[in-house]
Amino acid sequence: MELGWFWLTVMVVVAGSLVSLARRKKMKRLPPGPKGVPILGHLHMLGKNPHQDLHRIAKDHGPIMYMQFGFVPNIVVSSPEAAELFLKTHDLVFASRPPHQAAKYISWDQRNLSFGAYGPYWRNMRKLCTLELLSTLKINSFQPMRREELRLFVESLKGAAGERVAVDLSDKVASLTAEMSCRMVFGKKYDDQDIDERGFKKVIQEGMKLAAVPNLGDYFPFLGVLDLQGLTRKMKALAKVFDDFFEKVIEDHVGAGDHGETKDIVDTMMSIMQSGECEFQFDRRHVKAIMLDMLAASMDTAAASVDWILSELLRNPAVMEKVKKELEQVVGLKRMVEESDLDRLEYLNMVVKETYRLHPVAPLLIPHYAREESTVDGYNIPKESRIIVNTYAIGRDPNAWTDPEKFLPERFVGSDIDVRGQHFQLLPFGSGRRGCPGIQLGLIQVRLIVSQLVHCFDWQLPNDMPPKELNMDEDFSLVVTRANPLMAIPSFRLQN
């Protein structure tokens, strides 16, 4: 009975607050949006794939759309023109990140680059990452490591090719990117059990899911303490896993001393911290937060990107043949692909762009946050609104793309549209101040892995499956992956 009175009180308070909020908002011209329901607002309209739901709803309400999730106002952006207004014209107003329970627990109180609030600390941290951790010089210093890991990867697939058995490409690629990321960030490979019995891939993926799942504590702050969904408990447990592991990594580096010329990312950050020359207070929490950023970004997004590109190539054999022919002309059949070949693979680059258009791995990016009340395109944007940029919808905008549902890499012939945030029709890495600083590294990894897989092997779907029957269902998270693993049979094609 007491519990019943508690919930009745909560509902009365929430309903009263929403009525008051609604009265205030009627005085301003908000963007159009669907009709909500008391308390929940529009939360009930989101299913297991929110990017698809928001795309569908925006078709009826326009490219700048207002939605209320609990107490939280959201502006959903679904066209290139609208994205440019929020990410370029008014970029500074929306350059922050909202409070976020998952990031609070998992990212050392949002000390990382991805979820950190905009301000002097964040600006200095981004500068540090751009100049010290993700510079062209630093990325190039890891080139021998990438070559070695790819050689081992190809050798492992040659075994399956000899036996003519299907391999789980999703799992194989995820393992490859995990090993590359570990060597780049930590300086060496760690065994899966070093982080947790679930292993690196599973732990990172759980973190991505917890960061993306609709959390009542984010939308109804007073409910956060009750943890009705059990998410806070999971976040705290995962935070401890990350903290214990990263402490071990740091201690390993402190004990090892100088690593010579090629310093991994932990070496670089520890030397900056110990020098005391950084423009802001820099301690182990910052090191661990950036380690997590680097590990998750270089591992999960790269693996998902490769997965979707290979899926589209297997679904479109004519496109696959064109990529093969280009590789034969540029590289020949007597060696593997080198990083120096990548810029000459023009058709492959079109395939990568087209896949990012149809399958952006972070379709809703990470929400931006209105630091102040503003007016955009004649609409009032309330302070503390979340700005959700739906790159999935933008990639399917018929005003920006001809035949948007078709996979047509040739649409980029003679086009200067790229993925680096300057062209708002294609924003897989975001744009503006919050654009991903690791674009260069990400594109090298993705193109190198895809080109190697296509160049070294012919691929066949198992059980003589027709290409168009390949399942392309999505599994929503901060990084959207295939719902089902990509299985294919390799045949080695290089001339030994």
UniProtKB/TrEMBL annotation:
Question: CDD domains annotated for this entry?
Answer: CYP71-like
Q: How does the record say this protein sits in the membrane? A: Single-pass membrane protein
Q: What are the TM regions of this chain, as residue ranges?
A: 6-22
Give me the residues that bind heme, please.
Answer: C436
Q: Which InterPro entries match?
A: Cyt_P450, Cyt_P450_CS, Cyt_P450_E_grp-I, Cyt_P450_sf
Q: Name one Pfam family in it.
A: p450
What PROSITE patterns does the database record attribute to this sequence? Answer: CYTOCHROME_P450
Please provide the record's keywords in A-Z order.
Heme, Iron, Membrane, Metal-binding, Monooxygenase, Oxidoreductase, Transmembrane, Transmembrane helix
Query: What are its GO biological-process terms?
Result: terpenoid biosynthetic process
Signal sequence coordinates: none
Q: Name one GO molecular function term.
A: oxidoreductase activity, acting on paired donors, with incorporation or reduction of molecular oxygen, reduced flavin or flavoprotein as one donor, and incorporation of one atom of oxygen
Which Gene Ontology terms of cellular component type are present? membrane
Where mainly found?
Answer: membrane
Q: Which prosthetic group or cofactor does it need?
A: heme
Q: Where in the cell is it found?
A: Membrane
Has the keyword Transmembrane been applied to this entry? yes
Query: What does the sequence similarity comment in the record state about its family?
Result: Belongs to the cytochrome P450 family.
What is the name of the protein in this document? Answer: Cytochrome P450 CYP736A121
